[in-house]
Amino acid sequence: MQANPRPANAALTPITLTALDPNLPHTALVLAMSLDGKIADTRRGAARFSSLADLAHLEARVAAADGVLFGGGTLRAYGTTLSVRNPDLVAQRRQRGQPEQPRQLVWSPSGNLNPQMRFFRQPVPRELITTVAGAQRWNAAQFQRVWKVPEAQTTPWDWPWILAQLRESGIETLALLGGGGLAAALLCCHCVDEIFITVCPLILGGATAPTPVDGVGFLAAIAPRLELLSNQTLGDEVFLHYRVRPTPARDDKFLYPGE
Ligand SMILES: NC(=O)c1ccc[n+]([C@@H]2O[C@H](COP(=O)([O-])OP(=O)(O)OC[C@H]3O[C@@H](n4cnc5c(N)ncnc54)[C@H](OP(=O)(O)O)[C@@H]3O)[C@@H](O)[C@H]2O)c1
Prior knowledge:
With about 260 residues, the protein is of the alpha/beta class. The protein has one domain (about 35-245): Dihydrofolate Reductase, subunit A (3-Layer(aba) Sandwich), CATH 3.40.430.10. It has six helices and nine strands. The protein has helices spanning about 50-65, 70-80, 85-95, 130-135, 160-170, 180-190; strands spanning about 25-35, 65-70, 105, 125-130, 145-150, 175, 195-200, 225-235, 235-245. α4 links the parallel β4 and β5. α1 (about 50-65) runs parallel beside α3 (about 85-95). NADP nicotinamide-adenine-dinucleotide phosphate (NAP) binds near residues 77 and 180.
């Protein structure tokens, strides 16, 4: 699969989300992590360690987006998703001509999700990104749309291709809500434009606890580089907002992990 590097001279402001490639949605990864860089404890359960201010920040990021994307591991951990409940945020969506709730997209290659999860009773539009086999057990009441990604686009997962389909279906802005597996898959494909990360005042530790970006990792020479757009301290938490800098094309001199 070819990487999809963004234009080298692209400029972004922290407020206006403008897609760098008109064929792809603008993507923003939003996570909370412990001071030691973990997004959950070693049980890999739901991460509920951040403050109400961080929850409001997350809701604002969700409310700003046409769609939100998260991995099956995250859905299995939470059993639910964050809908937009703040009336001001709902009103702002209406004013922008957006539906009240963003489209909730789950990435699960196996499609192995429990249909009894509360997620399936939440009043939000649900979509599944999966394989042909993973699609089999689901119906239109559970997922209004099932994106069956052809095998050729799943080895490895061709996120630029998938995001282009989502853009065509009307998603201009996409919030990426984790976990570390999803973040790694998209960062590998140069498909993350911005990162919002909240540093929370606790230490989780544990070699197997998930981190913001799991997967095989990047060699330092080719690791994604970031530009700090803003930082804010609220209580004991630090809210960081970065832009992901354009990365050398895949055929440049650096090797990617596993090559
Ligand atoms: N602190 C935060 O802000 C935050 C936010 C989100 C999540 N989290 C935490 O992150 C954890 C979940 O993260 P995660 O990394 O486990 O899951 P994830 O990123 O939510 O999802 C990973 C996805 O990768 C797929 N996958 C796994 N192995 C694969 C392989 N070999 N090839 C292709 N696809 C593969 C899985 O598919 P299947 O569905 O088919 O298994 C799953 O859908 C939870 O503990 C959650 O609480 C924290």
